[in-house]
Amino acid sequence: MKTKSLAIAVILLLPVAVRAQTAEEIVKKYLEARGGLDKIKAVQSERITGHIAFSPDFGGPFLLEFKRPLKMHMEATIQGRSLIRVYDGKSAGWVLNPFDEEKGAHAQPMSADDLSNISDESDFDGPLVDYRAKGNQIELAGRDDIDGKPVYKLKLTRKNGDERIYYIDTISFLVLKWDGVTHSEGKEVPILNLLHDYRDVDGLKFPFEIDTGFPGSPEQRQFTIEKVELNPQIDDSHFAKPVPPSTPADPPAKPSVPENPPPA
Prior knowledge:
Blueprint: H1 2-34, H2 37-42, E1 45-55, E2 58-67, E3 71-78, E4 81-87, E5 93-96, E6 108-109, H3 112-122, E7 137-146, E8 149-157, E9 163-169, E10 175-184, E11 187-201, E12 204-213, E13 220-230
Antiparallel strand pairs: 1-2, 1-13, 2-3, 3-4, 4-5, 5-6, 7-8, 8-9, 9-10, 10-11, 11-12, 12-13
């Protein structure tokens, strides 16, 4: 009788335990699918090169460099002019936008909106790595389907209150999509990202194509990655205030300053 009662108690409690661990287990399997937490944390610096396209005939090469802790250098060359975003990993960031006719001649301090997003942009591990230590919370928000693939919907709430939904493949446990908000000109702007073409780089998985859209806006960006380098030597001067390069005399059309392709 006691054995039967114990069995019933275990059965009744089991669903609660499973629900409590589901989101954590999904994150754990996602990290394993990427290559493992140890390998992710072993990367001290990262360099990504490729092409950014705002439209089929408007784009150019980009360079993205990261270095622990939270140092970042992004450069996109459009019509011969280089847009640069830099963060020193501490408290200072700069934007050099040669398409800004008023301020483009010199690097400008990042705006409050830029700085509110920058710790997320410069964290090349991504917000799911050590999410608790970063003040993030996760919960399972159900299931969905993306291009015929069943996915888990994992809701992440950042410590500033911003929410994201990560769509994680139930088979590969890689992120196929995430959507949420970013901040621009004092407003919350919805953003979504589709991640494609995962490839292995020294034992870690990276998406080599990222499509970024802004619901309600025609603006789209496509990042096509050509090369990912892990632990390259990057001088700290790359994360200091940028010096304006020489630019052509005729100003081209002004694009928006691109944010980095989001970490997987």
